[in-house]
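STRUCTURE REQUEST FORM
Protein name: Regulator of G-protein signaling 20
Source organism: Regulus satrapa
Requested output: structure tokens
Priority: standard
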Amino acid sequence: MSRHETSPTTVQPASNHRPNACCFCWCCCCSCSWNEDRERAWRASRETKLETIPNCEACAKPTPEEVQGWAQSFDKLMKSPAGRNVFREFLRTEYSEENMLFWLACEELKTECNKHTIDEKARMIYEDYISILSPKEVSLDSRVREVINRKMQEPSSHTFDDAQLQIYTLMHRDSYPRFLNSAIYRSLLQTVSHASSES
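Status: completed
Returned output:
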């Protein structure tokens, strides 16, 4: 589940904005410009997630057997491009799509061999999903963050392996059971089964 699921309770009015604020606090109650900028970015992120899904993986229409297989194991779901798309759609409804986006970005990084490209993509992944300043930050424990910070001094295609496993496990334990009981999955299962019986 995304750590940004609940809205900060205090938002200072615009009249209190301090453009030259020098504090860099981590609380929700101060009126510093950093907190206001993060709040705006967070709200924009939530609004974006209500739009249609961008950049979905290209995939063939899943068969009834394939859709039923997704309920048998999380691995089957994640190995299927169609399964990942549907699961990603569900994660958007829970405001935790960044977990899937991070996992996919890590998978893409593993296919890279060019050192310059690896450095560039690793930096982008860090800024998008690891940095505490990002509205798409994924939830990782301090040990994994320390490992990543060390590895970022000399990034490789496996810099985020520990973090990717932690997010995979989080999605498996937390989101996957709810996905199987969701209207999104049940509706798809019904649709493909109905289409199959008619053909």
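Reviewer notes: Residues 110 and 123 are 14 Å apart (CA to CA). The two ends are 39 Å apart (CA to CA).
Form closed.
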